[in-house]
Amino acid sequence: MANTDNHVIIVGAGATGLLIAQGLKKAGIRATVYERYTREEYEERSGDWTVALHWSIPYIEACLPPELFAKLKSAETNRWEEHDPHVANNIPLVNGRTGEIMAKMPMPSARRVVRGKLRDLLKTEIDIQYGSTLTDIQIDHPETKNSVTALFNGGDVVAKGNMLIGADGARSPTRSFLVDQDTGKLDTAKVMILNAFPKFTREQALFIRQKSHPIALLSPHPYQKTLLFATMVDVVDPEKPETWVFQFSLSIYTDEVPPTDEKERRHLFKAYLSTYCEPYRSVSQWLVDDIKVSGDKFHYWGNITPWNNHGGKISIAGDAAHPMLPFRAQGLNNAMEDAKLYVDAIKTFVYDGKDLKSCIDDYDKSSYSRGKLDINLSVDQMHAYGDWDAVMNGPLLRGGGYGKSH
């Protein structure tokens, strides 16, 4: 007998939480999304960040109504054209000094999507409560109707539901209720990241574009411990190259943190790029002073451990469950699989009458095991990119590309 009087509390309005909300809505199960940022902050934070979408596309399709899935193209970095799959589905690894293509790494069904645009698509007709920071989770007696109570903003906002799923990012507050502080601590990668999202003149943009790849291009450098990641962020107007937005992300293999002064970051960024092949040598010269160069460090859950789901009432998904490094482009794809499998678990509980703990235990095992594997492989790939002698023996080339890990 179906138990349809259920409410799922979703913490986090990123792509993972929103896809869970869409899947539950499609299944006729009530859900509410709580997002810590205000609506204004949420909109401002979308930015130009892009993510790789490939083997997880069927999971997205399963969770979305057909009319919404049909709009997925609108979230891509270049929504105006269909890429040649023989080109797009093979990501080039390029000698950063000479420009020689060292290898082509298969990425099945490759797409590059803008994180903010994907998020905006997935939040269509979803109930989102903005400005709600999770501060406590209380589990009521199992026999009570609403067995999970989430407190936001110190208790100013109270949400009652039957289940709670945390899709609240790498530094997930939800995860802190499921594992102890030491266990949930993130490791810092020995890489400094410098990012720029520039536009160029028409002639410059066309020059860069003709030497680029429609999805992404990776260039380790033989004489310096750096890796350059280059991609198109947004083809705003295909007839106006001066409106195109590019991304250049430079990984510098060091324990150091990025300079706090932006002029120093820009100087460092341009100095490293100046030793690269074209078009990146020219990019280093064309990068004007009003282009922001941001700095960051990557973090990952190296000590990932199975979490306590409290009888199936609380779990985590996406970066909350398995924050990993981006060097194998698996983060979003694992998150989308999490979303689909969590929705399936809740549907099995609601409509098939299976025990909630058993349903969520199965989901957790999948999320944990996939996450652990890809966290470890992403760390291995990071080290391979930073060692010229090992670059051709990293997991991406050794394992046949960007397909789903096994």
From TrEMBL:
The entry's keywords: FAD, Flavoprotein, Monooxygenase, Oxidoreductase
A GO MF term: FAD binding
Cofactor dependency: FAD
Domain FAD-binding: 7-47, 141-366
The protein's name: FAD-binding domain-containing protein
Organism, scientific name: Talaromyces proteolyticus
Lineage: Eukaryota, Fungi, Dikarya, Ascomycota, Pezizomycotina
